Amino acid sequence: MSLSFNQIFMNLATDLAQKSHCVKNHVGAVLTKDTRIISIGYNGPPAGTHNCDEEWPEEGCPRDSKNSCSLALHAEENAILYAVKNGAQIQGSTLYTTLSPCIACARLVYASGIKQVYYKYSYAEYKGLVCDEGVDFLNKFGVSCEKLQED
Ligand SMILES: [Zn+2]
Ligand SMILES: [Zn+2]
């Protein structure tokens, strides 16, 4: 049985997450259009700064006020930034991410014209929050954002 494109892209996002140098959480993202990949990303500090696992192997990344890595761009941010820098047309694209978008990424996803988001794990569950505000934001404003069911 062949995999669906949804599953292929989510599998790739899952593999990409392993490239992350952040100590706490590894997240991967794939940006596609018409079943073709236009960008990829995983969470991590911008090139030329630090790799958290090399800089702080024991204590982990320095935390921000929400207990997230204070240096890293999120996987979605990195995927969108790369597409922008390389002139890819993000309008109407589909994003696959291993962790549902945080509210800041949700705003960026919405503003960049992405039309559909599939995620594997819930950000709220990971953070112990009561609701997935990023998911709610996207669905409220017309971007379909749903958990991808396994084939
Ligand atoms: Zn980090
Ligand atoms: Zn985010």
Automatic annotation (TrEMBL):
Spell out the family assignment given in the record's similarity comment: Belongs to the cytidine and deoxycytidylate deaminase family.
Transmembrane ranges?
none
Cofactor annotation:
Zn(2+)
Looking at the record, the residues that make up the CMP/dCMP-type deaminase domain are 4-133
- Record has Zinc as a keyword: yes
Q: Pfam families attached here?
A: dCMP_cyt_deam_1
Entry-linked CDD domains: deoxycytidylate_deaminase
Hydrolase found in the keyword field: yes
Name the UniProt record assigns to this protein: Deoxycytidylate deaminase
Q: Which UniProt keywords apply?
A: Hydrolase, Metal-binding, Zinc
Which PANTHER family would you find in this protein's record?
Answer: DEOXYCYTIDYLATE DEAMINASE, DEOXYCYTIDYLATE DEAMINASE-RELATED
